[in-house]
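Thread: Newbie trying to understand structure tokens

Hi all, I'm a second-year student working on a class project, and my supervisor (Dr. K.) asked me to get a predicted structure for one chain before our next meeting. I've only ever worked with sequences, so writing a 3D structure as a token string is new to me. If someone could post the tokens and maybe explain what I'm looking at, I'd be very grateful. Here's the chain:
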Amino acid sequence: MQAWQKQTLLIAIQSGGLLLLLDGLDEVKVDEATILDQWLQGLPATVNFIIGTRPHAQRNLTVSYTDKISLKLFDWGLIQQYIISFFQNLYEEISDNSDETKHYNEMFIVQVLNWIGNGDNKEANEILQRPLHVSLFCEAIKSSYQEWMIAEAEQKTELQNGSPWQGSIFYRTKLYQLVIMQQLKNIYYRLSMCKHRAMPTTIPMFLC
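---
Reply by user tm_fold:
Sure, no problem. This is what the structure looks like when written as tokens:
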């Protein structure tokens, strides 16, 4: 660290302008967490820090903190509200706002909610109770939504490649695979928009 960097850091510490973001405490080994705890206790009182962790790992810290925030799981009502709001906002961005496209938008949302709310689909329901996971899920099926809107506009009855989130037990790894596929599609669209390359339909093994 250069002298000016040290000076800038010192000023930030003294003025209370330094914020440390420490995420994943629950993934730190117990002995290393003890070292971290001692290090935090040695920080000046003007240093602010935010620690992200699962509740059980808090016992590894003795350092005092002023506020504690617990992220609660979504219930079924909040899951529905998030998904409806997400795709309604997406619809307003890309559609012509006609009565016909509104109907297609509602059909897609109903299809997704019916699948999640299916009593036989407990895995998906449990996974999507976490706010981060339901957000990732919506981002991951964006392209399916766009394909659905195009297919319905062309008087087709189903997606060309089916619904990618269906067809198998929806474990967390399935969600992550969907996210990766969406990102790969985004890259392909950007790089080969004028080259008409086929979109990937499988995930490379090194990404699984």
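A couple of things are worth pointing out once you decode it. The beta strands are 19-23, 48-52. The radius of gyration is 23 Å. Feel free to ask follow-ups in this thread.
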